[in-house]
Amino acid sequence: xxxxxxxxxxxxxxxxxxxxxxxxxxxxxxxxxxxxxxxxxxxxxxxxxxxxxxxxxxxxxxxxxxxxxxxxxxxxxxxxxxxxxxxxxxxxxxxxxxxxxxxxxxxxxxxxxxxxxxxxxxxxxxxxxxxxxxxxxxxxxxxxxxxxxxxxxxxxxxxxxxxxxxxxxxxxxxxxxxxxxxxxxxxxxxxxxxxxxxxxxxxxxxxxxxxxxxxxxxxxxxxxxxxxxxxxxxxxxxxxxxxxxxxxxxxxxxxxxxxxxxxxxxxxxxxxxxxxxxxxxxxxxxxxxxxxxxxxxxxxxxxxxxxxxxxxxxxxxxxxxxxxxxxxxxxxxxxxxxxxxxxxxxxxxxxxxxxxxxxxxxxxxxxxxxxxxxxxxxxxxxxxxxxxxxxxxxxxxxxxxxxxxxxxxxxxxxxxxxxxxxxxxxxxxxxxxxxxxxxxxxxxxxxxxxxxxxxxxxxxxxxxxxxxxxxxxxxxxxxxxxxxxxxxxxxxxxxxxxxxxxxxxxxxxxxxxxxxxxxxxxxxxxxxxxxxxxxxxxxxxxxxxxxxxxxxxxxxxxxxxxxxxxxxxxxxxxxxxxxxxxxxxxxxxxxxxxxxxxxxxxxxxxxxxxxxxxxxxxxxxxxxxxxxxxxxxxxxxxxxxxxxxxxxxxxxxxxxxxxxxxxxxxxxxxxxxxxxxxxxxxxxxxxxxxxxxxxxxxxxxxxxxxxxxxxxxxxxxxxxxxxxxxxxxxxxxxxxxxxxxxxxx
Length: 745
Fold this sequence. Notes:
This protein is of the alpha+beta class. Helices cover 25% and strands 25% of the residues. The protein is built from 18 helices and 29 strands. The strands form six sheets. The chain has a seven-stranded mixed beta sheet, sandwiched between helices. Strands 8, 9, 10, 15, 16 and 17 form a six-stranded mixed beta sheet that branches. Strands 1-26-20-21-22 form a five-stranded mixed beta sheet. A hairpin with a 2-residue loop joins strand 23 and strand 24 (561-564). Helix 17 (633-653) crosses helix 18 (712-724). The N and C termini lie far apart (66 Å).
């Protein structure tokens, strides 16, 4: 994956804490500031080029064809019937090379080949190529396919009893500690409840799209992908070519949320078609195909068993989940991932089973595990607090452990209790009343709280920093920006260390010809690629010190000037005619084993429930978050606002519906899959706690992109209970689940 040629490389493996950071001593004053996005003007003026917008000469248009059955063998495709349509160039049904499923972004992940057997409704089986998109779309609709039906498994409820233990993956499929059964049976207070969440779709604004161009046996793919470095490896494997022959360019991405971690069917189909036709091919998924043939978040069924002493200390913690996926897929929604480290409790059972169904692949969606797993955990904590007669915040504080309850190692940094306390103060938690007691006209009003947590990961990444003779700088990396602010925060890191105004730093991201990076996923992007930028800039700074004849720790860089040894010299006099450059590379090390690393926070929500209609309105939301150094206060706040909005969707609106007879998605567009819109989202408050994590990386930052969604939904659900006294354990909480239980008019 990594290899840089002749450039000077500054590499750091996180085997030791990194207490001293140049971001603490820099005097440029741009780090952490709420600066506007450097890519913002291009995006709002329509000049940022997204995957489907590259102007390529002589381009042909491809439209994918999805299977119209849930499980069958493809017997024949009548391509000749549509090839006669004027404007149609070809129909390609390359069973050997098309990929069965989108990939999940792992660099060693080999795409599953072959689609002669259809495993789910909508699986891509062909691509129609034409001179225009309209002709290709028309021909794709007319394409006739003959199937040999196979018995499929489409109904989760009818088949969940056949669920099998999940294989060990990101976390263990089954985990036991102590004697859970005995501790639970003997607990003074017990909660045994089941929460369910439905399948969900990432519903990113930009559909999956690829433009494939072959030149001299090498492929350039312009695509919408979160992790270009590993995606290029996957694409090379799928096509049977050397990775050196595949380049992916993904400069701007209109949202991904996990759905664009790995290559999807349109990339392989476009590449095959372009090579066969010897001309560029563009393939853009229709919105319905994005829903039908990319990835979904699995539905979950979560049995929560909490046993506690009368004072609230948890003695038995059980979180047992059933999720669903296709046969032979290793991925499972890691529902209990946050449960492993969030609360104390010496006796623990955290299990995951998988029901094997012929439904669309389930895979990573924003905060896989915590986003839905904390619905079960945090709602059950609310129920436990109610059963004990204890404030929900006090219950969480009592069970805030001093070290990881399973790994028995210290936390690298942890501010859960402080987040809860700060949030309670800002939100006015002391005004909360007992369930069902507060009413304003036809509206019942309630408050809810939930903890937030998201495990922190560091991934190997690299970046290049070049300081040019004119005193400007360029930062380049295969890192991506999926709307999270990567362009801006990396420019800020480089500007702070090199003593430059941010506008003097040019960013080049999303191209596999540049130093490889882990990309955007798992909330590791900013800390990983940002640390690589830090290391590269640090090495350039050392070269400046040498050129000036001073020690690096005696050098101050500000506004394009180098100051040291009672001298002030313009950078342009130090860089030389060829400029200065270096590559930075960060690698995970022993620190992630010696410390439990995660980001923490707390969500607060106030809702109104209409006693006449059962309508739920979120009136207020507030989040307090601790995620190490905040690199840009504006982009970080934006990420948390987005996560909290995701939480509203999980709690109130989002639900993929499969036909249990065929597996077909019934609501596969943005008209019928209901994401929160402006009317659903109140004004939100976001607060950050000042924190540094010296064990995480040299910039002391931790992941924040997915922290904002983790715990947001249960805060809303708990507020609904406080408003009405009604426990709804089946997500989303739609009005039909409340109406019959509301007070009589």
